[in-house]
Amino acid sequence: MRLLAVIAIGIALLGLPPIVAAPAASASIRPAPSMPATAPATSPSRSAAPTAPAATWGVAPSSAKGPNGRAAFTYKLDPGASLTDRVAVTNHSTRPLTLSLYASDAFTTTQGGFDLLAGGQQPTDVGAWVRFTRTTLTIPSTSRLDVPFTLTVPANATPGDHAGGVVAALAATTADAQGNQVSVEHRVGARIYLRVTGEVQPALSIEDLRVRHTGSLNPFAGGTLTATFTLRNTGNMRLAGRPTLGMTGPFGLARRSVDAAALPEILPGGELSTTVRMTGVPPLFRLTATAAATPTAVDGLTLDPVPAVDTARAAIWAVPWPQLVLLTLLALVAWALLVARRRRARQIARAVAAAREEGRAQAGVEMRRATDGQPATVPAETRAQPAAGPDGGITPDRAELDRGRSDQGRDRQPDTDRTGKDEQ
């Protein structure tokens, strides 16, 4: 039967989220002892057995007279210095508890949480500088033990902040769904914040900047610019801060920026990932995103000198597909209107040319008829109204003159004939 090491997270003393450790053990580091931790009762087998009462305990900074209200073990020491302090471990359950007491190093999770090394990992920082007079405690029900410990800073300790925690752990054995025996360790602790004197160097750096632009189907609305990056504390003191995301288009067009949510505490050497979003970003084909983070002290003090603000830039494509589709449709409509207008103009021009040709043909026919002595087909209105002469009188038209000449010729013909008869 194999034993598996798993994590069982203790409940917070002040309700902060439990810290997550590597597979072996887990600790909940809380700033104050107002809420004790509770471990569920376990049974070594799946057979029916009386249920043991739940185990509940808490850990808090203390003095010789008991807990003194401190939120954490906070110290400022020179290299090589040492001090003695006490931790209060309280059993709130109705049965005795046997707990393991030790210290460990802290680190920042990628989500920005405060966590301790797994129980099986040896500390190398402030957790290794703590020595307890007792490491195994058997505490009667509803009782408290104030355990002294000594913190000794090595002479070669680096200046700046060192974080860790004091842990009280309860080991238990239970069975999993397959019936295998599983070793479970419930941990509850209190934080240690140590500042070693010397030059402090606050610094935050931005790494692994990734940016993407998500367009909108509405051509009159902008898209969403999403930037994801890692913030690393490259200095030697605990820092917080607020990241900023800026955006510019080609030639500095549509420049704007947005502030993200404030950062949680980042321990020296720690890092966390954050995401900043900017809405209403116009797709200007090529966008340049700039991420920046201004470090601030977690205790609210002013950093002097003011640390430099680290920035990171990334360029991305933001093709305005909906706008291009809209422009294409508008261009097609304009082209169709232009083609229809030109076609109508050509039809009108052909109709005018045909009318002119028809008029010329009709005029030629009338002229040929007039030359051959045939009366031209003239509208009745035209025959009824003779043309006016230069003096304002009525000028007979050519047809009337021709008829007049013909009549005169016929009138003279008989005279000629009679003259001929007389001569004979």
From TrEMBL:
Biased composition (Basic and acidic residues): 356-371, 397-424
Entry annotated with the keyword Magnesium: no
Coiled coil: none
Region ranges (Disordered): 31-66, 356-424
Transmembrane annotation, as ranges: 321-340
Signal peptide from the UniProt entry: 1-21
Composition skew (Low complexity), residue ranges: 31-56
UniProt KW keywords: Membrane, Signal, Transmembrane, Transmembrane helix
Superkingdom classification of source: Bacteria
Entry protein name: DUF916 domain-containing protein
Taxon lineage: Bacteria, Bacillati, Actinomycetota, Actinomycetes, Micromonosporales
